[in-house]
Structure prediction request, 398 residues.
Amino acid sequence: MTRIRRPRIRLRSAALTGTAVLAAATLSACGGGSGVGSGSMTAGEAKQTKVSVSTSGEQAKAGEPVKVTLTEGDKLDSVTVKDTKGGILTGEISADGKSWTSTRTTSPGTKYTVDAKAANATAAQSSFTTAKADKVNKLAMAPGKDTTIGIAHPLSIVFDNPVKNRAEVEKKLKVSTSNNTEGSWGWMMDYSGKDRVDWRPREYWKPGTKVTLEADLNGVDSGTGGGWFVRDYKTNFTIGKNQVVKVDLDNHRLKLIRDGQEIKDVPMSAGTPGGKKASWRGKTVLMSKEGTINMRSETVGLGDAYDKMVDYSMRMTWSGMYAHAAPWNKGYFGSANKSSGCVGMSDADAKWIYDQVQVGDPFEVTGDDAKGTQALNNGYGNWNVSWTEWQSKSALKS
Prediction:
């Protein structure tokens, strides 16, 4: 029998780095030993995917989209860019099939793996790592996740660090509602001194509306002094009962209105007019129900005027305006404003109101016995500006 000497074939592979060619070694369809070589391909042997990638190395710049370009072949079949935590950079293949570009940007301090496959070819893989962020920005959102709130509560975000790239950040904040509620973002300096952005509906929310916020901020630079966002955020809430609390400073009455009908009318005494002790007027929003708390006058700039444990406390502003029980002031309920800025009621009336109201209910305070209108950032004063003025506060205003 004649002995046939088989030629020796050397196998080689190429790794994808930066704009280098990406190639994957494969076996022939028959399972033989031939692979990627310099000679011609045998029948049934798979082609190699060859692409270039816009991002490379171990200290790649963050905040950039990734572009994968086919260097040989007809069309890209699929491209996946995934980080080590399983997060995926979504993207789209161009109309001609020659390139893929991510719709999200890369996050700092993250390793990504690129898998690319051309039509009728085998896939190939490579990786790159972005440089770490010098500073990271974080945020706090209100209302809380899976909560039910009143018809006036805005969607509010306060940032740990300054946000100079407000337009870029706002583009990543996606609000969706169950009934296509019209609304707009508005930027301000929070009462704490931090940057803040709120989403306010044009009018009070409709009861039953379901709201979702997706803040796709991972990989977004907040600008000079602010740092990078290194994660996405998401929250959701539902709008509860349609009710409004009306506070009449001049007539010393507080009324609860539900579905347009008056449910309760109680006598009260608000802040002493003519100085720092006067109450704020305007459309405020119930921020929190705090129960029994210690109120001290020095915390609101009123010296040592009082230091009391106060029941059924309902916060209306950051500056310390509450509605609460004030039995020590009962001689003035319904007749005069003689408190240190808060709306005081009897124990029984305060308990009843406390049990009925929801965080997010509007407290509409009217009357001349006030020291002015609540500021936009002193709690949620969003409703004290017109819709046109509110829209002008968006970083994306035309």
Notes: The chain has three domains: 7-132, 139-240, 243-384. The chain has three helices and 28 strands. The longest strand covers residues 288-296.
